[in-house]
Amino acid sequence: MNFFPKETIYPFMGVRNIFLIISAVLVLGSLVLLFTKGINFGVDFSGGSVIQVKYDQVAPLQKIRSTLKQSAEFQSAYVTNFGSDEEVLIKASIASENLNQDTGDLISQILKDTGNFEIRRVDIVGSKVGAELREQGILSVVLSLIVLLIYVSYRFEWRFALASIGALVHDLSITIGVIILLGVDFNLDILAALLMILGYSLNDTIVVFDRVREELQESKQSDLATIINEAVSRTLSRTTLTSLTTLFVVLTLYLFGGEILAGFSLTMLVGIIVGTYSSIFVASTILIVVKFSVPLYKKKELEKEKIKKEKERLRSMYEKGVV
């Protein structure tokens, strides 16, 4: 399916400086948010308790919040509906190891005047475990970037790898900035979404770079911007179709998946939009910025082809018993 005419070449690189400025502003804004507001680590990474409460009637959220504020242990607790108007999720930065009684029993005692309810779930993460999970999460992202750098360097060329990693860092930075701006709790679901965004964005970039490599081999052009315009225009229909279908699925999860999937699906939504944008404008622009040389690349490829043919010739002679 082609949304765009195959013969049409769009001048993407002609406006690359505009999008480079936009990206720089967004990344800088994300860094400012990171160092000023900071990431709002959820219970998974900071430690604490998550309590799910099921009421017989519509849960009185305001009364629950005001009641919990009167308790020293739950003054800063986060209270929200969970799945339905009758169910409530309470997040607090305390663990039972810091209390003289069970967290579920304590909540039952504090909320006894808010209506008839039952405690459905109590999840507790100690502060030490949360810190370990946070360190392992950061390590997993860093290792993923390193492995991807090695993979792209092997498959293409180091400048392609540098452009790909630059685009991935761009995507992660902006996505994390949006998470901080919206006050989304950073938990294991968000980390999983970020790792998925890495794979999605890289796949999009690899498709574009594959086409760029084909154009480098087939085209007589020596201007990199022109070759990139041709390559991106050829893959534009595929990129649009892939992005839209993925976006619709994730949007459905966000709208109808409930509170438990809200953070994950929101992160994926932002990541898909930013990842698609970066594969068209950011990665290709970085390739130009690092001064990728078309004539030098063609010269290297020609030498590789000569070496390959010479090896095939020697192998053929050996098999025929000439050597």
3D architecture notes:
- The structure is a single chain.
- With 323 residues, this protein is of the alpha+beta class.
- The chain has ten helices and four strands, in the order H-H-E-H-E-E-H-E-H-H-H-H-H-H.
- The protein has helices at 16-36, 43-46, 61-69, 103-110, 127-155, 158-182, 188-218, 224-256, 259-289, 294-319; strands at residues 48-55, 78-82, 84-92, 117-125.
- A four-stranded antiparallel sheet has the order 2-3-1-4.
- Helix 5 runs antiparallel to helix 6, helix 7 (188-218) packs antiparallel against helix 8 (224-256) and helix 7 runs parallel beside helix 9 (259-289).
- It is elongated and about 90 Å long.
- The model is unreliable at 96-100 (pLDDT under 50).
Labels describing this entry:
about 325 residues, alpha+beta, single chain
List the helices and strands and how they pair.
Elements (H helix, E strand, L loop, with lengths): L15 H21 L6 H4 L1 E8 L5 H9 L8 E5 L1 E9 L10 H8 L6 E9 L1 H29 L2 H25 L5 H31 L5 H33 L2 H31 L4 H26 L4
Antiparallel strand pairs: 1-3, 1-4, 2-3
Low-pLDDT ranges: 96-100
Q: How many distinct beta strands?
A: 4
Query: Structural class per helix/strand content?
Result: alpha+beta
**What is the straight-line distance between the termini?**
52 Å
Q: Strand share of the residues?
A: 5-15%
Name the shape in a single word.
Answer: elongated
Helix content: 55-70%
Strand order of the largest sheet: 2-3-1-4
The radius of gyration computed from the alpha-carbon positions, rounded to a whole number of angstroms, is: 26 Å
Largest sheet: 4 strands, antiparallel
Number of helices: 10
